Amino acid sequence: MGATATTGNKGKGVRSDCFITLELTDLGGIQLQVESKVAVMYGDTIRKEALEILDFFGIKNARLTIEDSGALSLVLAARIEAAIKKLIASEKNWLPALQEENRYATAKERNRFSRLYLPGNSPSLMINAGIHKPDGIILDLEDAVAPDKKDEARFLVRNALCGIDFYGAERMVRINQGERGIEDLDYLIPYNVNLILLPKCELPDQVHAVNKKIREIVSRHSLSVNPIWIMPIIESALGVINAYDIASCSGNIVALAIGLEDYTADLGTKRTAEGTESFFARSMVVNAARAAGIQPIDSVFSDVGDMEGLRQNVLRSKALGFDGMGCIHPRQIVVIHETFAPTPDEIEKAKKIVSAFHKAQEQGLGVVALGTKMIDPPVVKRALNTINLALKMNKLAENWRESYEQI
Fold first, then answer.
1. Residue 262 belongs to what H/E stretch?
2. With the C-alpha atoms ordered 163, 98, 77, 118, is the resulting torsion angle positive or negative?
3. Number of Cβ atoms within 10 Å of the Cβ of 30
4. What global pTM score does this model have?
5. Which runs of E-coded beta strand occur in 108-243?
6. Cα–Cα distance, 314 to 322 (Å, whole number)
7. CB within 8 Å of 249: residues ≥ 6 apart
8. Nearest 5°: phi and psi at 375?
């Protein structure tokens, strides 16, 4: 028996994936077995791609078994390549074609009301995630991936960045902690990622290490890449104390997030719906982000069945000054968007501010007032942003509601 590697997932409930068993042999040639419910229609295609990948990596003698549960080509390729690279060293990459619709850049100031977490080793959750219209999609390589699956998840996330249409959502990846996270970047930076989430960030040095690796990868591959943003996640008492230093340490930081599960664990307390135990930390993150001129982003709400609880949580989050939050199920997206959106009172006030500003300009007045309150340029800018945001939310609201009523 030669060296053997397995990758992928199988079993009850697994779909859009495959399980690969690859054994290097000295039997002479390739022995290939495909087990699939769709083998009659797609068996030849699966075999052809598998043989092409083996040949690409110089595998001449092997026994390959594919247990397919409806995997897309990019998933099959990621699973086979991961198995090969468990057994041999190779600098080659078998990549899907980069989708034209995935070449977009994202702006530093874009809306980030919602960011949907997806386990980085579960292709079934990635494939149609974009149709739910989150502002960002997070392919998670950290907590959502079992330790023994982290290496193979890198190949799947890389291929997803290239080959899955996310319908304009910001393509985010949460990397691992420490050196493993730095190594994750080799699978992300050349492949169309928009934003890197940096977990358990406690010091600016962690941000600097990520940016140093990004520059090294860009230089090594002679890449011409879109801006790659960073969102540090504050998840400890030390991180909270250093929040401003982290938020202000690099020009490509666009937001500062807080992760309350790990933060409350670090405090040695329980997370509650009221959030009394995290009020200080959340306020610190908001203030640090605002002082640094970036967006503050709140933690996830973990009860996916409690929509009213989620709505109340978003209202508290918005009142504290957050611009968005994470979510762990698509059904949470519409509630997050609608609740973070401007209220009728906020819209009406914004209209009055803008109207007063225009009247003052027409009359050549140097001072703008609304009632007894003076209006300065930042206030007018916020009012215009509120109106523009309301118009955008109005346009999208009908599509959101129609999508989520079916979930």
1. helix 260-267
2. negative
3. 17
4. 0.88
5. 114-119, 136-140, 170-174, 195-198, 229-234
6. 9
7. 204, 207, 208
8. -120, 120
d(CA 407, CA 404): 5
End-to-end CA distance of the chain, in Å?
48
Q: Residues of 239-277 as b/e, b for ≥16 C-beta within 10 angstroms?
A: bbebbbebbbbbeebbbbbbbbebbbebbeeebeeebee
Cβ neighbors of 33 (< 8 A, separation 6 or more) are: 63, 64, 65, 66
Tell how many helices (H) and how many strands (E) occur in the chain: 14, 14
Angle, helices 331-340 vs 377-404, to 10°: value is 150
Q: What is the helix (H) or strand (E) element at residue 340, kind and residue range?
A: helix 331-340
Distance CA 270, CA 337 (A): 27
Contact between residue 81 and residue 94 where contact means Cβ atoms under 8 Å apart: yes
Which amino acid belongs to residue 172? Answer: M
Cβ neighbours of 56 (radius 10 Å):
16
Q: Tens-of-pLDDT digits for all 407 residues of the chain? A: 579 999 999 999 999 999 999 999 988 899 999 999 888 888 999 999 999 999 999 999 999 999 999 999 999 999 999 999 999 999 999 988 776 777 889 999 888 999 999 999 999 999 999 999 999 999 999 999 999 999 999 999 999 999 999 999 999 999 999 999 999 999 999 998 999 999 999 999 999 999 999 999 999 988 887 899 999 999 999 999 999 999 999 999 999 999 999 999 999 999 998 889 999 999 999 999 999 999 999 999 999 999 999 999 999 999 999 999 999 999 999 999 989 888 788 788 888 888 877 777 777 666 676 666 777 777 777 777 777 777 766 655 555 455 445 44
Structure tokens at 104: 């977009």
- Beta-bridge partner residues of 34: 66
What distance in Å separates the CA atoms of residue 323 and residue 385, rounded to the nearest whole number?
A: 13
Q: Which domains, from first to last, does the chain contain?
A: 4-87 (3.30.230), 100-340 (3.20.20.60), 344-404 (no CATH)
